[in-house]
Amino acid sequence: MSEIVRTYEELEQLVQKTYKAPDLATLRRAYLVAKNAHEGEKRLTGHDFISHPVAVAYKLAEMGLHLNVIAAALMHDVAEDSDVQIETIRTQFGDDIASLVESVTKLKHSIRYRGAERYAENMRRMFLAMASDVRVVFMKFADRLHNLETLYGQPKHKQQRIAHESLEIFAPIAGRLGMSEIKGELEDASFAYLFPKEYERMKNIMDIKVREKGAYVSRIIDQVEKLLSHTGVEDFQVHGRVKRLYSLYKKLNRYQGDLSKIYDLIAIRILVSDVEECYTVLGLMHQQWRPVPGRIKDYIAQPKPNGYQSLHTTVFTENGEIVEFQIRTEEMHELAEYGIAAHWRYKEGSHKPVKHTHWMDELAQIQKELQNKKDFMEQLEIMKIDVFKDRIFVFTPQGDVIDLPEGATPIDFAYAIHSEVGNKCTAVRVNEVMRNLDTSLTSGDIVDILTDKNRRGPNPDWLKFVKTRHARNKIKDATARSVSGWLAGVLGRKK
Ligand code: MN
User: Fold this and answer.
1) Which pairs with CB-CB distance under 8 Å and at least 24 residues apart come from 96-103?
2) Which of 157, 267, 384, 453 shows a CA-CA span of 20 to 30 A to 356?
3) Within 10 Å of residue 254's Cβ, how many Cβ atoms?
4) Long-range contacts of the stretch 12-15 (C-beta < 8 A, 24+)
5) What is the torsional sign of CA 82, 79, 113, 340?
6) What is the pLDDT of residue 122?
7) Mean of the per-residue pLDDT values for the chain?
8) What is the DSSP track for 337-368?
9) 317-373 tens-digit pLDDT
10) Which of the following is catalytic: 23, 39, 41, 81?
11) Is 394 helix (H, G, I), strand (E, B) or coil?
12) What letter would DSSP give residue 200?
């Protein structure tokens, strides 16, 4: 493995090419501060240390992030590795750049994988930092991705620690935020170091499958496109998606290594404009090909707890080959791939066609849109607040992060964990103190749900204060079930 080494000149060229009237003087000053601070320092890959912050800045510039973020990225390691103080940066570069450098530096000290007991605290700190300024997340992810690219230079035990951290802390955070794209990148890069043999094995499996099935899948895609073009469905996109290696590995383990049970090695995604069309397309697919029993999943009517929506079905095609289809709207697709970041786009209004690029490229796009529309101060407020404005992050006593809409209650939390936890919920401790079930939770709360297994079901009064659709649906379901059960009991006795 190796990486592309970027020079500052390349960074400057990129910035000049893609930014409108960039403040190159500030950028160069930031570079010189970093270059000075890291003078004589080497990375274990043998490259000058400065190549690292330049690479991180380059990634962020590719995303089109504001120049303050790029400048801060150039200096993101100076406060730790040299005598340069945050206060000096503040005097020379102003509050905004200094506070970005400061946040990233603070995170660096707090996020370390030290076994399960520290996991909760790590997650908590990371999330709270993110919630205060989402730009820090981008810097942190860009930093981590470059460190993974250059991991080959590290001694073995460090490779293990960094890969472990990425897999155990960073990837789940990306996952909790619904950023499946970045989660996948982090997982696969770590997987290669943590389980090299298994990684190779998965890679071989996928290589073979793609070779075997590639032509066949493109034929099916053609067929689907033809089929759809003869119907009222107008805007649609059909494309194949190949399963990521780590995700395949986990699934194979769940199926005792039986590859024949995994139907989504290569799946076909169909994107349409609205929910109605999703169901229309599902019907069309089932008319054309016989569905495999028990494999139709309606995550539109019943979204997964993290909000994922889609219709899934698996069908037998001509030669008895089995193919999985994932049918969703473009909006659902954006949320599935880019998570919380996708919310920006909608708030900005204009609904543009979705480009199927990586998550970070998408962010770049969003960023550029912001840049065109707002002056910098307004933009900053959007970046700092808007994305997380209507979300809170709360924790289980084990340290799992649950994200919920603002104003969510312990009941919403309980149903987000599992419907049975919701149905059997009797009381709650928030930060070790007993609270009412309709208490509004706030970011950082540790929520401990007390359940009673003999409880018959949810209290219909909960419907008056729950905030999530998920909880509301589950309460209604359970209430309906218990009423019909009661009715059956009553009618049964009458006979
Ligand atoms: Mn770094």
Assistant:
1) 96/68, 96/380, 97/30, 97/68, 97/71, 97/72, 99/133, 100/68, 100/69, 100/72, 100/133, 100/135, 100/136, 100/139, 101/72, 101/75, 101/76, 103/129, 103/132, 103/133, 103/136
2) 384
3) 10
4) 14/58, 14/61, 14/62, 15/61, 15/67, 15/70
5) negative
6) 57
7) 81
8) HHGGGHHHHHHT---PPPP---HHHHHHHHHH
9) 877 788 999 999 988 887 777 665 444 333 333 333 333 333 444 444 444 554 554
10) 81
11) strand
12) H
CA 297 – ligand 1 centroid, Å: 42
Q: Which two tokens stand for residue 73?
A: 């990225």
pLDDT value, residue 121: 54
Question: DSSP string covering 92-128, please?
Answer: HH-HHHHHHHHHHHHHHHH-----HHHHHHHHHHHHH
- What's the 100 CA to ligand 1 centre distance in angstroms? 13
**Segment 402-438, tens digit of pLDDT:** 778 889 999 999 999 899 999 999 999 998 899 999 9
**Under 8 Å between Cβ of 128 and 443:** yes
Q: List for the chain the helix, strand, coil content (%; round to 5).
A: 60, 10, 30
Is 81 a residue of the active site? yes
pTM: 0.62
CB 96 within 8 Å of CB 380: yes
Give the residue among 362, 335, 337 at the shortest CA–CA distance from 181. 337
Q: Where are the beta strands (DSSP E) in 389-454?
A: 391-395, 401-405, 425-430, 433-435, 447-451
432 tagged catalytic: no
Q: Do the Cβ atoms of 239 and 193 come closer than 8 Å?
A: no
The residue length of the chain stands at: 495
CA of 371 to the centre of ligand 1 (A): 26
Separation CA 463–CA 440 (nearest Å):
14
**Closest Cα partner for 393 from 381, 408, 382, 380?**
408
In what order do the strands lie in the sheet containing 425-430?
433-435, 425-430, 447-451
Catalytic residue among 23, 39, 41, 80: 80
Q: Is 169 helix (H, G, I), strand (E, B) or coil?
A: helix
Q: Which tops the pLDDT comparison, 219 or 491?
A: 219
**Alpha carbons 371 and 236: distance in angstroms, whole number:** 30
What average pLDDT does the segment 94-102 reach? 92
CA torsion through residues 193, 197, 198, 204, sign = positive
Which residue segments constitute the domains of the chain, with CATH numbers given?
A: 8-194 (1.10.3210.10), 197-340 (3.30.460.10), 389-494 (3.10.20.30)
Cα–ligand 1 centroid distance for 97 (angstroms): 16
Phi, psi of 433 (to 5 degrees): -115, 135
- Amino acid of residue 277: E
- Interatomic CA distance for residues 259 and 251, integer angstroms: 9
